[in-house]
Amino acid sequence: MIGHNGEVVVHVEDVHKSFGHLEVLRGINMQVHKGEVVVIFGRSGSGKSTLLRCINFLEDPTSGTIEVDGIRLVGGHRTKQQRDNIRQLRIRAGMVFQQFNLFPHMTTIENVMEGPVTVKDTPEHDARAMGLELLAKVGLADKADESPIRLSGGQQQRVAIARALAMEPKVMLFDEPTSALDPELIGEVLAVMKSLATDLHMTMMVVTHEMGFAREVANRMMFFHEGVILEEGPPDQLFNHTQNPETRTFLDAVL
To answer: Can you spell out the DSSP letters for 44-60?
Structure first.
């Protein structure tokens, strides 16, 4: 279990999100502390991925406030000022998607360098050096000049993690990072995520069905049900002393 200090990196306050008449998030409140790993789980459609997308403003929250590393945004309206703040917020919140979303026309190293060069004006030479270091960290130093199409799904997802890390985010958001992978490739991605938590003490929010990872790496787990956090607590509590029958039913089905 990884310790953390009191510093709040992500603060979500009364966040609602509707798509038309469908309310997907119904007043989410949470704080994530520096160095903490929070695993979010629940059925499809319970709002887990939508929450991550709202934190990164890939989806505009209908209402409520989101704060990441001191950048505070109110949902429901996009002004010029808001757009600048969204850009600042996204620099601080790295996102790793289900589908790896690598640029197919760029090499592996170019994918990792792209953000620092275009968003942060990092000199190419420096961005490349950092990119190579990050590829080494995810076990792909030898694939720097490969095209992503020539990599396995697990390798592509590890490149996507390196790409997110290249922006030096304050929190990493993982949206079901292993759900598009063949079973034998899942372990290599989870191993990289585990090392981010244990070696780099990275603050992480992970939407996943991988309960072994949650049990081993999470500080806290949150069970989402119909747009609310129905239950939360340390892994031991959720696995062994569940408070809510819905949580128990779900865990019994996936374990």
So the answer is: TTSSHHHHHHHHTTSS-
